[in-house]
Amino acid sequence: MQEPVEISESCLAGEDKALEDDKKAAARTPWYRLLPFNPFPLRGCNVDKRFPGMEAGWLSLMTYHWCNKIIWHSYRSSLQLRDLWRLHPRLHADRTGEDVMHEWDRAIKRHGGDASKVSMSWCFFRAMRWSVLRVFFLMFLFSILSFIGQALLLFELLTFAQKPVEETDVYDGVLLALGLFLTETVRSMVFGIHWYYGVEIGVRLRSAINILVYNKILRLRNLGSMTVGQLVNLCVNDSERLFNTGMTCGFAIQTPLMVAGTLAYSIYLVGWPALLGFSTFILFFYLTLLISKQQAKYRQNGIKVTDVRVRTMNEILTSVKLIKMYAWEQPFSSYVASVRAKEKDQLRKSAYLQGTASSLVFVVPAVATVVTLATHALTGGDLSIAQAFALLATFGAMRHPLGTLPYFVRILSETHVALPRLKKLLLMPEKAPVSEKVSDSGLVIEMKDATLAWDVRESEYKKATKDVKLSNMDRLRMGLRRKSSAATPLLYSDSVKQRANGTAAGKSSALAFNQPHLSQTSSRGLMASLASMPPDDSADVPDCLVDISFTVGRGELIGICGTFGSGKSSMLSALLGGMNLRSGSMAFQGSIAYVSQQAWIFNASVQENVLCGLELDEERYTRALSAAALLQDLDILPDGDMTEIGERGINLSGGQKQRVSLARALYSNRDVYLLDDPLSAVDAHVGAHIFSELIKRELKGKTVLLVTHQLQYLPYCDRVALMVGGRLAGVEKYATLVTKNAVFASLIDSFQCEKAAEAAAKSEQRSDLGASYLDTTASLEDLYESDMSLAAGNDGEPADQEGDVKKAPPATLVKAEDRASGSISWATYLAFIRACGGALPVLALLFMSLIAAGAQAGTDYWLSYWLKQGSGSTGNTSSTIPNDTLATTTTAHLANTVPLTGVMTDAATASAVVDSGSISDNPKLGQYIGIYFGLTFLLSILSIIRSLLAMYVLLNGCSRLHDLAFRKVFRAPMSFFESTPIGQIVNRFSKDMDELDAAMPFGVGIVVRNWFTILLLVLFASSVYPYLFIVLFVTAILFGLIYRVYILFSRDIKRLDGITRTPYISHLTATIQGLSTVHAYGLNSDYQRRFSRLLDGNTVCHQAFYLGSRWLAFRLDILAAIITSATALTLVVFRDSVDVSLGAVALAYVVQLGGQLQLTTRMMSEVEARFTSVERLNYYATQLDEEAPEHLEDTDPPPEWPFQGRVTFDNVCMRYREGTPQVLHELSFDVKAREKIGVIGRTGAGKSSLAVCLLRLVELDSGRILIDDIDVSTLGLRDLRSRLSIIPQDPVLFVGTIRYNLDPFDKHSDEALERALQQTHLKDTIDQLPSGLDTEVLENGENFSVGERQLMCMARALLRHSKILILDEATASIDTETDTLIQKTIRECFGECTLLTIAHRLNTVLDSDRLLVLDGGHVAEFDTPANLMSDRNSIVTQMLSSPVDQHSARKPLARFASKARAHSNKAPAM
Questions:
Q1: SS3 489
Q2: Nearest CA among 467, 626, 444 for reference residue 550
Q3: Which is nearest to 1167 in space by CA: 1010, 1058, 1005, 1035?
Q4: For residues 649 and 463, what is the distance between their CA atoms, to the nearest angstrom?
């Protein structure tokens, strides 16, 4: 069962006062911490949530007694975020980030300012050097205690047991047994405190890399070559690798310590032959290094492919609506599957190498032993049984470093991959504020001969897929087509964007600059001259803005115009510090408010988006809403201004998002306002209102730079700046510029042609329209009242649909992430088994594990049998000898996060009664050695096969689960994406998948292998000593109780870890998407603080999981020590009544069994905790709703369907989600074949809902839609959507090439692509790019202007040759002149199509065959424009003739002020 979990700020980091109290408490060391336990329990509101380790006594800290409270709470009731402690002050992300940045800055100074020479690993070590040294010291103590307890004491105990009773004192044996218990207990306590500080280092490293990445992002001018996927990978997966490195850093010194101790002791026992045996370990170490080096290569390649997959997932989820509209699910799914296959290939190679290294751990000690013993015996050395078993014990102890070495080398290699990626980000150029001061206090902006360019952006995609076999789609994305090789793409940004393209094909020659020094230069010629300019040291891209010289005075309104790609948006970016100043100077003063061309909206309420962190001022707030024409929209919203907006404003239209952004800018009350074409997203009515009320009235006295394609507003600007080809062609008053500049005059001519057409269309209604464009005496009120509008607040986009939905009862749109409760269900385990291929592969794995464990036991038994034979004589006196018990008891105590590669079970080598003679005298020595070598070889083969099979089966399961979840997500309805943040989905496909790929196969393999080992140990030991069943039974009960208590905590905390990870990932992606806006409003510190709080909230869960695992480990260690000591005491006390040899065997097996059971129990808990990732992915794979089938065989339409393009709506009723009102009510109308229909209506009328219904993004409540007499509900979704085309208002481009974006699936020839570009007037622009069609397109199409993106989308639609086309204000961001040409293209190229046009600009629908007027989900009017305008009572006539309804601007504001008061206590979301 799923239950939502809400995450609040107080849950994440606590109140500020409490944090300060924690810092003060951490700064002192109270005297009572010197006591074993704190006699003063914590009290108080803030103190109760303080990290309990701060107040714990030393014994409590070492035994993890301080964790009891939270673990028992989890056992009694489900753990919630409010139950967790606050993070220790020294672990806060801010502090750890500052420590590392301090060392980074110091290192840069030491290298003379050359940051490229700085070592990131050295900076991290310096920042945490004292903690690392402390961990090294504790690991040294742990190693010494391990050697004393498990080598020396155990050896002495077994030596004592084999002596005659009359020659020994029983108290000596008791002391040895108690000494063994004490040593094991202290050893476990020392390792516990080592683990505590190791986790602390890991947490600090993880927090540091996250905060370094985020803070750097906030300082960047732009992302450059980094993608969202790479940054998410850095913060999620790479940070986890650094965590593992820090947590296990102590094991770096354990290996050399164990090697030195083992070598010395083995030489002491048998002399120089030990060197030969020890060379086996050296060979293994060397082989491990080779394997690890190759494994690191595979992991590095895999990480790069993972970057591509995560980035592609993010891109697909962002553009999922367009993908569904175009029926591209299957091709994109195939592409993700191909990327995942490459990633899986790298993972499998890495896993096979790791499995091979792990298998050798079983074999190497046995090989080393037999090599040493055989050499010693064959050279005539005198080898007693005691020496032989002591040697076995010593070599067995080497399994610990053998097991940890491959793992430790692997995480070091992964860290070696991660740190250069972080360093690359830190070396990227940062946003530099304009520091120069203006020469005159009356000026706000001053630019003198300023030449600017964007930063160089290298393509990372090709690097990421280097040396990987490419599919056809890969080749298209990378610009490789058929047999021709693409030129290396030269990347441009926003306005090299543009290449100074100025004129498109077919434009008037009058577009030459009317300036003395440019009079003979066309835009094309200017582009060529720019392209031929030699690059400077800062970049290889051409200059974007060239020789810009102009000033802006305080309080001026400057209108900036020009064709698309001429550098208008780049001008604003330059003022924001987002471009590189190559020459000249820039001076700026005052605070900035910025409205981007594509509005940035974050997941919060309308009010929070407007306030953006500022305090609520009711009067100013309501004025901002009124000026932005939002009041009428708020009437429709269910919760008014407190209605939640989805991620990226998904439930708002383009116009609504832009008006929220404008209201935010107005409310911010800044000195300078940079408005990047905000009026293109709204209709003429709303645009006139915004210009009059917001720009001219509310911003009076402010400095405003307005980029616009709406030329009707230019006469009312103080001055007009004309951009052509990246140069400033003129900055004059409107009347002066229009008479002296031919370029500007041409633009105005084109605009007036549109106005003349509109005036002619309504001349019968109003004869007084059509004032000359030179008449600047008209008032703004005249403009406002006479401007023709289609609808008040009509924004045309999905938010028309959502506007209707907003009438629904109040409800939370974006749901909190679901969280399962209780134990992992059997359904989850069965789902994973099915993903692994079903029962057969799993049974094969179990069978191979059993066979390998049996081979291990057989090999050990044969060695025991060989050693028992002694010299081969039968008359020698028998004696009891020690056995190899070191291996597993040493390895058993490694904490669960360090996956040891295996625990050798050599207990069978213990002997009961053996020949005391030297084995070198045995005549069958060669036979024994040969058989042992053969069994060892068989064991190695079986172990390797088992490991490879485990990796193969389990990795297949992980990949299958990924594919199932992705398919279900991709097939989910749009309502799922509207209510689920992208960060939540990406979290499951990044971090959760990394948990499965990197840890699940290894963990499950250990658990399966160890359970079979334990089974054989129990059977073998019980056959020798049946009474051990009693001890084992009691032990099993205690183990079960402890495990039951712990596993509930482990599952809960792991689930909370996954849930708290989503918010900080979502915050990261939202910041990246709105980086320019965050910079402009100075939100860096607020957003950094928010990110730190979210990260700290996740860090608490992360830390608690690993500390809780040690709580379990310590208690199991103590139980194992009790079992060992009890068995030893039994052996000592009852030597006279129990065969000593049997007691020695029992002791050896019990020692092994305790360690094995402890390790296996702990690993089981970790695997089950990681099964929460399986659970989360399986929820997507099985529980998500799914759209209708893509294809239905029974109703497969003919290939040529639609035949004519007739569309019939028959009593259509539709609602967007269950529980919401209907947005279309019994809608009925017919569209004839090849008819051009203009769709108009007010906000919420249902205009965009027509497209939604037609494409079946939402299914109908009732009624039907027919296309050429075929009911669309009877068709498969792919069959329907692939036959229709839509050009949405928000253009979508994918990472790849221009060719790929036009023809993603390689269906068209180059000639067809060039023809489509020619028809959309983009061919000249594309031809002038160095790589033409193979030019790289950056993420979100950032290296092209919004207008160019819209034209590419139109070219894409032209190539589909659909009979039915829907235009949803597809030319909103294109200048008037180009729009005129595009409208001509639409009429010519889509003449044989049925065309449905949802429009803001009146001229785009006035020449339609009929106008469809919707009102409240009903057809209000449907007739020709002439007939509707001739009817004085028609809605169209009222729209065209009557003054604009100013109700939204005049209505009382009191009710919105009351809403603001009601919610003023809510903290703004950052």
A1: coil
A2: 444
A3: 1005
A4: 34
Over the chain, what is the mean pLDDT? Answer: 74
Among residues 824, 741, 720, the alpha carbon closest in space to that of 1171 is found at 824
Q: Which two tokens stand for residue 221?
A: 């001018």
- Looking at residue 36, its pLDDT comes to 56
Residue located via tokens 């293994």: 284
For residue range 777-828, list pLDDT tens digits in order.
Answer: 344 444 444 343 333 333 333 334 333 333 333 445 555 555 555 567 788 8
Report in angstroms the alpha-carbon separations of 1109 from 37, 193, 1164, 1263. Answer: 21, 13, 11, 59
* 1209 bridge partner residues: 1229, 1265
Q: Tell me the CA distances in angstroms from 1205 to 312, 746, 1365, 1394, one per residue in order.
A: 35, 38, 9, 6
Amino acid identity at 194: H
Task: Give the range with max mean pLDDT: 230-239, 668-677, 1393-1402.
Answer: 668-677
At residue 1436, the pLDDT reads 78
Q: Are 1077 and 613 within 8 A, CB to CB?
A: no
pLDDT tens digits for range 1086-1112 = 888 889 888 988 899 989 988 988 898
The residues with which 1239 forms a beta bridge, in sequence order, are: 1398, 1412
C-alpha closest to that of 446 among 543, 567, 553, 560: 553
- As a whole number of angstroms, the distance between CA 47 and CA 1319 comes to 70
| pTM score of the predicted model | 0.70
- Give the C-alpha separation, 487 to 480, whole Å: 9
Q: Which residue has the higher pLDDT, 221 or 475?
A: 221
Return the residue matching tokens 């970790």: 1166
How large is the average pLDDT for residues 1193-1197? 84
Please give the Cα distance from 266 to 261 (Å, whole number): 9
Backbone angles phi, psi at 567, to 5 degrees: 110, 15
Q: Buried (b) or exposed (e) across 963-993, using 16+ Cβ within 10 A? A: bbbbbbbbbbbbbbbbbbbbbbbbbbbbbbb
- C-alpha to C-alpha distance for 1326 and 1316, rounded to whole angstroms: 12
Left, alpha or beta for 594 (phi > 0: left; psi -120 to 50: alpha)? Answer: beta
Mean pLDDT value of segment 109-136: 88
Cα separation, 1378 vs 1363, in Å, equals 25
Cα separation, 1351 vs 1369, whole angstroms: 12
Pick the closest to residue 1086 from 234, 218, 236 (CA basis).
218
The pLDDT score that the predictor gives to residue 476 is 45
Count Cβ atoms within 10 A of the Cβ of residue 775 and give its class: 0-12 exposed, 13-18 middle, 19 or more buried: exposed
- CA 896 vs. chain centroid, Å, equals 26
Half-sphere exposure of 1279 (CA within 13 A, CB side): 23
State which amino acid sits at residue 1147. L
Sequence-distant (6+) residues with CB within 8 A of 972 are: 1184, 1185, 1186, 1187
Cis peptide, bond prior to residue 1202, ω within 30 of zero: yes
Give me the DSSP letters along 846-910: HHHHHHHHHHHHHHHHHHHHHHHHTTS-SSSPEE------HHHHHHTTS-TTS--S-----GGG-
Neighbour tally for 41: CB within 10 Å:
11
Model pLDDT for residues 54-71, shown as the tens digit of each residue: 777 778 888 888 888 888
In whole angstroms, what is the distance from residue 1236 CA to residue 1390 CA? 10
How far CA 1340 is from CA of 468, 1299, 1323, in Å, comes to 25, 15, 21
pLDDT at 277: 82
Tokens for 944, please give them. 């390797």
Name 256's Cβ contacts closer than 8 Å, sequence gap at least 6: none
Tokens of 1407: 């020449």
User: How far apart are the two ends of the chain, measured CA to CA in Å?
Assistant: 31
CA 997/CA 1001 separation, integer angstroms: 7
